């Protein structure tokens, strides 16, 4: 079958029933978090027992099996990944796996100032921080914790140690932080962050309403009228979930992840490993493939590879957020890995 997402299929690659080639693995290292963002996790969360989390060695063994299948681009996430003790050690272990092309991290940045340089030296090169507002009160309302100052320090540290670009993600929820789009875009432009606005998805603990989604076109209109005219970036990575734009004046970049109004399922190239060792072919998947029992049991690389292939083959065509068939997954975002 011809690939639909632009990758060239090779013998062992992970191709699903719709011809999509998978090269991207998101690895959640913890379900714990030092914030409680209202769109992501409940306040009264119960965490997994630590014994249920994959160890670094188990994650590394898994990666060694899936890299030859084409999953060569890795991203660490959570929960808050920097709460996992000694994360730079895991980065180093994964960077040493032959065939790994790229390692990224998504973090709320609260602890980043302490770890940015160790992470960089361990081989991390891509970093995405999450920041939904520059207003301390709204930060507290959105994240149900303080942390604005620490996150800004984390962004500064990332820039200082040499991460480039530093991408800053904001989920936009109507009535909560839609008024922050313009200030965030302005600040990002001034400081050289690559700002990415994300449409609010039904994957958190709060009841989701379409009316709370601030759609891509609204975000673009606000930026264009208040910050500066934008044009689409030519030739941006077709697998990127973000639509990429640049300011006509200076080429500074802005991305919009329009998962609701313009789903990118047709070009999806990702699978996700949860911190407790379940493989998910889609963020919204209702089924998971247990790879931990294989890693802790027979530990047969061939059986593990077969389980990964079956998981990818069973991937559905796309999430159905925009249909009446949509069913919310049982786990919320922090426990899946965003
Ligand atoms: N704690 C880290 C952080 O916040 O960057 C990593 C994990 S977090 C689950 C990963 C990303 O998912 C963040 O950028 C967050 O804003 C995004 N996210 C969480 N819940 C979301 C939702 N309901 N809709 C859209 N994006 C969401
Ligand atoms: Fe924590 Fe990230 Fe979820 Fe916020 S979005 S609660 S920082 S995991």
Structural class: alpha/beta
The whole-number mean of residue pLDDT values reads: 94
Strand content: 15-25%
Main β-sheet, in a few words? 12 strands, mixed
Q: Which architecture does the CATH hierarchy give at level 2? A: Alpha-Beta Barrel
Biggest sheet: strands side by side, in what order? 9-10-11-8-7-6-5-4-3-12-13-14
CATH superfamily caption: Aldolase class I
Query: In total, how many domains does the architecture comprise?
Result: 1
Ligands, ions, cofactors = S-adenosylmethionine, iron/sulfur cluster
Structure description:
By secondary structure, the chain is an alpha/beta fold. The protein has a single domain, classed as Aldolase class I (TIM Barrel, Alpha-Beta Barrel). The protein has ten helices and 14 strands. Strands 9-10-11-8-7-6-5-4-3-12-13-14 form a twelve-stranded mixed beta sheet. Helix 1 runs parallel beside helix 2 and helix 2 packs parallel to helix 3. The longest helix is centred in the middle third of the chain and has 14 residues. It starts with 13 loop residues before the first strand and ends with a helix. The mean pLDDT is 94. Iron/sulfur cluster binds next to helix 10.
Question: What distinguishing features does this structure have?
Answer:
binds iron/sulfur cluster; binds S-adenosylmethionine; TIM Barrel; single chain; alpha/beta; 338 residues; two-stranded antiparallel ribbon
Topology record:
Layout: E1 14-15, E2 21-22, E3 24-28, H1 56-66, E4 73-77, H2 87-95, E5 102-107, H3 112-122, E6 126-130, H4 136-143, H5 148-161, E7 166-172, H6 181-191, E8 194-199, H7 216-226, E9 230-232, E10 242-247, E11 253-257, E12 270-273, E13 278-280, E14 289-290, H8 292-296, H9 301-313, H10 333-336
Parallel strand pairs: 3-4, 3-12, 4-5, 5-6, 6-7, 7-8, 8-11
Antiparallel strand pairs: 1-2, 9-10, 10-11, 12-13, 13-14
Iron/sulfur cluster binds at residues 33, 35-37, 40-41, 78-80, 108, 130, 333-334.
